[in-house]
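Data card: per-record layout.
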Amino acid sequence: MQNRIQLIQAAANAIYKYGIRGTTSARIQELSGLSQGMVNLHFGSKENLLLAVAEELSARYAGQWKAIAEDPELDPAEKLISVIKADFDPLVLNPRDVAIWFSFRAEALSNPKIFPLIDSRDTGFRAMILKLLEQIKVEGEYEDVDAKLATDALIALLEGLWTDYHLHSDIYKPEEALKVCLFMLRSMFPKHFLTQSLLR
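The structure for this 200-residue chain is written out next.
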């Protein structure tokens, strides 16, 4: 099990340093200190190892928002804010992992196995956001708000903020990104997103 984890981390570091195309078996061996035989034993091929990297990143990201969405202690607005904060958490938003995400996205259209793992239209995430916004809409009696359009807008905003981080991680401020999201939500759901305590 330790060798498997070590290979996944080495492959992730290789993608970060060299990109998908530059991640060769030799570079994975060099970074991991393990042989090609270990790659074949645990994954069958380099391609399967790279897929495992994408799976690990996807699972870590999904694990965060699913835990929040299932928390019975939080109301819908609190869940949504927590999900947004988690999107800017260093556990997932860090230079290495974001660079890997974008490397995989560059390959996604030509690799149907990778595409579902990095799809910006992930059905589970989208359904969770939509459910929370529909609940907030009912709670606040926001009759003129289209929850689906609000969901599309929020996810597009999060995607854009991740791209901004990818290009400018040295000056990026997660707290400012959170303020941008709250500004958008406040324009549609003012009764739920006015308090400054949401920024803490």
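Known properties of this structure: The mean pLDDT is 92. Residues 54-199 form a domain with the Tetracycline Repressor; domain 2 fold (CATH 1.10.357.10).

See the next section for split statistics.
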